[in-house]
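note to self: dont lose this again. the chain is below, predicted strucutre after it. 559 aa total, dont forget to put it in the shared folder this time
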Amino acid sequence: MKNFIFLLLTVSLVACGKKGADAPLVDLATERKANSGSVVGFTSEHGAHVWTGLPFAQPPVGDLRWRAPRATNGWTDTLRALEFAPSCAQPPSRLGGDESGGAEDCLYLNIYAPPMTAEAAAQADLPVLFWIHGGGNSIGSASDYDASILATQENVIVITTQYRLGPFGWFYHPEMAASGDSAADRSGNYGTLDLIEALRWTGANVKAFGGDPDNITIFGESAGGFNVFSLILAPAADGLFHKAISQSGSVRFADLDSAMQSTPNGSMAAAQRMIEATQVDDVGQLRNVSAADVLAAYNPDPNSGMISMPTIMHDGDVLTELPSLAAFEAGRFNKVPLMMGTNKDEAKLFQYMDPKYADTWFGIWTRAKNPEVYQRDARYKSEHWRLMGVEEPARSLSGVPIYAYRFDWDDLGTPLGMDMPLLFGAAHAFEIPFIFGGIGLGQLGDILDTTPNPQDKTALSESMMGYWGNFARLGDPNGDQPGLPEWQPWGETEQFLIFDAAADGGIRMSDDTITVAGLVGELVADTSFENQQNRCDLYRELLLFSAVLQPYTAQVGCG
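---
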């Protein structure tokens, strides 16, 4: 089995990317005249028209580091959009990140469209799906996702975008803020502002590529799902999108004080480390140090490469309200139809890489140290993720259609005798290839291809692409899909759709929802914990993800 451990370590982000491939040949049928300038692209192996590396903002370098993005001035000559732009600056990572470290000049996007002439594109007005990649807001790249199949099968335009990551995307320091020319410059939410600028560019230019600027759906996974929620809450994003999908997202955002003071990676401590390492005189001069010097002030996770640091901050301008759920309850958000969901076994991906939970031999063969503990802890962590990513937001929102889901597909095999259903199950990010139609392509596809039922997997992928395409068209995932269950909206009955293998019940509705109090009650009554210390260790780990459990500390017995 080819380099199996590497494949496993890349599942969080990589769907079917082409980064590193030779540049394709120009296809003159892809020539378009957008507002930003003329551009020509290529035809992908799956028949889509593709344009890569389109700049949507000026390079955020030099004096523009840690400032709001500036709109692009466009270009004069025909742009040959044949190669992906570098990833945004980030730590080298095995988990779908960029081993090269990326670059600060990275504010570019890619467009995938069904094949059509320029004349047909100008009249097509197809729905637009705007993808925001994951990676903890500190690693990842738009080039990791090939949207050719989704675009051609669902007859939609798909845009994949980049945005500043880690300390380049989210960094608030009062001395730095004092030099800002605007409230946006002073906000610290530069990655969020990049996404808003990319949406502005999309609205102004997408019609030339066949898209409807009045029918844009944002969708993203993991950190991308967090960013979807931030755009729903951002006043400056109002009107720039018309529907939203959060996959494994959450509304866990920071306040400015914690963003500055948290340890070890709050901006005050990180800035001091940068100053000491580079021997500059003050914080303002940090705009002149190298990107490598900025990243060197942080210690990425040794397994994922992601930086644990505050991102998406309630600064009072880009994001005005705290807490997010209260803003939802008060109706202060961008009111668009919403789809949101998580995977049944979100936490297993991370437990697989954690030596606390799993042992690996020869870099290939892995088993859980204690299968019962592995399964128990993953269930609590994954249900807590579902609470914060689906159920608590859905209970707080009103006045908009809401469609909730859970991805349960775990029909994996046992290569080399490894218990893949236990180790991964329906793990974090496993739904991505189903939605992009890339189940059989790329590194994540290699893992999912251990299934003994590939035809069932393909059928589920086509169904999911259909639901996502219908939602982009109509704001309702239901459409002309014979044989598929009706996806009923979240309401007083609090119901959601389950995506699963046919042998395990298939696609079906469920009302098996959870509450914070219910999850705490299970934790308190659970007799499988070896001792109270182990129960409290898990409880405190859940608290790191959100503070929603904090009022129950005494009840759990972990005060």
